[in-house]
Structures are given as C-alpha cells and as structure tokens.
Amino acid sequence: MPESIHIAAGTLLASAPDLLDPNFMHTVMVICEHTAEGAYGLVFNKRSTITIDRLMPEHPVLGQLQLPVAWGGPVQNDTLQILHQYPAQIPGGFKTAEGVYLGGDLDDVCTLLTANEDTSAHHGIRFVLGCAGWGPGQLDTELEAGSWVPLPMNPNLIFGMDRGGRDDQEEAWQAALRSLGREGEDLASMPPDIGWN
User: Is residue 49, in this structure, part of any structural domain at all?
Assistant: First the structure.
C-alpha cells in the first residue's frame, strides 16, 4: 500500500466515481477498524428501506419513532449499530474519531431521544443496519486500485446532512468529495462511466 495512504479508525472513505458495485456506488463510510486481520466500516449516507419504528416495532420507545436507518453495508445486516455525538449522555461506546462515537447503551439512547420535545438530539444519532467488511489486505488492495477516496473526518458529513429527501445519498457523497477542494470538485461531478458523457 502506498505510504501516502494511511487508513485509521475514524477515516472517511468515499467511493470513487467509477466504483459501480451497487452496494457501494456513491457511498460514504466511516472506518471503524483497519488492521492486518481486516477492516470494517459503516456506510452512513445510504438509507435502508425501513425506519427504526418498523425495525423495532415492539420497543416501547423506538417503536414510536420514525427515524431513518442507514444501510451500513452487506455484512451482518441483522445487526443494529449506533453512531452518535453524545458520549456523556450515551456512555459505553467508543470514540471512533473526534465528535463521532460508536455504540453505547440503548436505554441511554432512548432517554436522550425522548428527554424533551426538542428533537435536535435526533440529528446527532444515526442508526445503522449492517456494515462493510474486508478480509486481510482486501481494503488495502481496493485503496491501491483507487476504488476509495480517503477523507479527513468531518462529523458534519455524518450528522449534518438533511435526512428527509430522496437525494440525500448523492448530496452527501458529493459533499464528501468536495471537501477535498478542487480535486474533489472534479471527482464529484464525474460520471460513473465516461461513456455517459
């Protein structure tokens, strides 16, 4: 792997414009772990087809909230994970990057979500179903091939995007690439296949 590419936990990866795998086309993810044994991350800009109330209809709190659930990737798609910005109110998780935490007690998540009528806390919590996983050296190979564009952490890309519209995935992917400046601007406007021009 080139020395210039160092993928640590907390790094964001945006799919390259020509990555046509339907699982990952125009996605952005946060890397949670990358070691010699493999890597895993969570796609956060691709909505699943369900909301948390439909995923957990019997839960006394979450069964009443129509919050989006992101599709985290094709691995362990029966596992719900939580990205959040509230380490004091949701203890028990771990710091993925500055301003981004993974996991914590679900009861504490529910307490925060229902603490008062102010729903601003909802924007600092992302429910994610499934994850993306790579075997030993697999992510390194994909990085060398240019399938992924590493980005510095920007919690606003995870928590600050409007989650109400159909084009959120595309907007978040373009915003992530544009955070690189001129080079990213060019990538964000590039079609997946140059034959589409």
Answer: yes
How confident is the model over 108-161, as pLDDT tens digits?
999 999 986 667 788 899 999 999 999 999 999 999 999 999 998 999 999 986
Cα 154 from Cα 188, distance rounded (Å): 17
Q: Is residue 71 part of a domain?
A: yes
Looking at residue 40, what DSSP letter applies?
E
The two counts, helices (H) then strands (E), for the chain are 6, 10
Structural domain count of the chain: 1
Residue 70 inside a domain? The answer is yes
Residue 91 lies in a domain: yes
Residue 2's pLDDT is: 41
**How far is Cα 49 from Cα 38, in angstroms, rounded to an integer?**
28
User: pTM for the complete prediction?
Assistant: 0.88
Q: Residues 32-66: pLDDT tens digits?
A: 999 999 999 999 999 998 999 999 999 999 999 99
* CA-based radius of gyration for the chain: 17
Output the domain CATH number for residue 181. 3.40.1740.10
Give me the percent of the chain exceeding a pLDDT of 70. 88
Q: In this structure, what token pair is assigned to residue 168?
A: 């959120």
Domain range enclosing 71: 12-186
CB neighbour burial string for 14-29, b if at least 16 within 10 angstroms, e if fewer: bbbbebeeeebbbbbb
